[in-house]
Amino acid sequence: MSRPIPTGPEGFTPTGTISSSTDRRRVVFATVVGTTVEWYDFFLYASAAGLVFGQLFFAPAGEGFAQILSFITVGISFLFRPLGAFLAGHLGDTYGRRLVLMLTLILMGVATTLVGLLPTYQAIGIAAPILLIVLRILQGISAGGEWGGAVLMAVEHAPKTRRSLFGASPQLGVPLGLLLASGMLGLMAVIAPGDAFLEWGWRIPFLLSFVLILIGHYVRRRVEESPVFLELADRKEQTRMPIVQLFRKHALLVIIAAFVFAGNNAVGYMTTGGYIQRYATDPAGPVGLPTAEVLGAVTISAVSWLVFTWIAGWAGDRLGRRNTYIIGWIAQLVGVVLLFPLVNTGSIGMLTLGLVVLTAGLGFTYGPQAALYAELFPASIRFSGVSISYALGAILGGAFAPTIAQALVQQTGSTDSVTWYLAGMTVLGLLATLLLRDRSGIPLGPDHEELQARSPIYGASKA
């Protein structure tokens, strides 16, 4: 087992300059708020796809196929995440992390607000689903660029012994975004139940995004640029073609890192992709629970996911990123095996328990990801490396997980096939993790590019 690589004195940033506790708190707060807004928008769409979009935008396709089409629109956005990652990686490695965070926040918020104003198929015909898909694509481009900038701002500002914990701050935006999205939809399901929710209630959470953009924009404007990028810029050492350099020297590493995330993402998208919400509320299905109750259960699981993600960030600094991941994969496999047997009891309490158990593994395979990814790539191409690995992992994992689950159940008539699918993705994530050395504590600044460029893959040359 590899040991963490030692670095300089405690309290110093990767560039060797002291970062004040005030600056660090501001960065943590900004990354949490910004990513929460981003993922609120992204998950709000996915939840609505499971609850209402099939009926409102794809009804002519027939009840069963309309729902599959609705879930496909969730997955389509993932296909455009690499485009967002490529654009953001180039901009982030060339012009800075902060600029990318501002652009992605605005793009995501505008697209989400416009979904809330979009006429349905009944009002404008085929133009409605086409416009819906266009807006979802814009969300995908934004999501592809957002994550890399947020995690690098957090990790590159962090003291060397707390990178995993600091890196967990943007990761908290995922469960917080899910909590906020499910909570808002659940509230509207109570305020505007039945037909009212279908007619106008679902739109209110989308329109709220405009207010959240303003809040997120204000918070992110007050954050200083990453010290690693500032030193690169001061030395004029930014890579002119970072993506070309990334794939020329680190293509295999990108693929392995993508599979690490894919194992988490496929399982996470059972709720963030709206599948459990649809499966558990379908009146023609085996469960048939009320929408408000299911959304409440998802909201509770988002809280537990948040807690386990934070604990995993803390554990990543003490146990190492790799060991924390291994614990997470084992816990996630247990959660996958228990999920559908508990959901299929038809009890809201058992459904909640199944989702909460699942979040233990999800948190432990997500909390240390920011630090793990940041320590894999050299400073000059780091934004491109983490963003593209993340985007490819999202395609391999969560992109069509709800669609695959829906198709498997319709084909086999049982959720056992979904369990096998999710278990397989979990094992794949574990195997990818085992291929990587733990590089906890490796210097992140441009002075150590030669060390950072050595392959962290077991069996590959370290030279």
From TrEMBL:
Ranges for domain Major facilitator superfamily (MFS) profile: 27-441
Keywords: Cell membrane, Membrane, Transmembrane, Transmembrane helix, Transport
GO molecular function ontology, one term from the record: transmembrane transporter activity
Record-linked Gene3D superfamilies: MFS general substrate transporter like domains
Location of the protein in the cell: Cell membrane
InterPro entries: MFS, MFS_dom, MFS_sugar_transport-like, MFS_trans_sf
Leader peptide range in chain numbering: none
Transmembrane regions: 65-87, 99-118, 130-155, 176-194, 200-219, 250-271, 291-312, 324-342, 348-367, 388-408, 420-436
Identification of the protein by name: MHS family MFS transporter
Organism for this UniProt entry: Microbacterium lushaniae
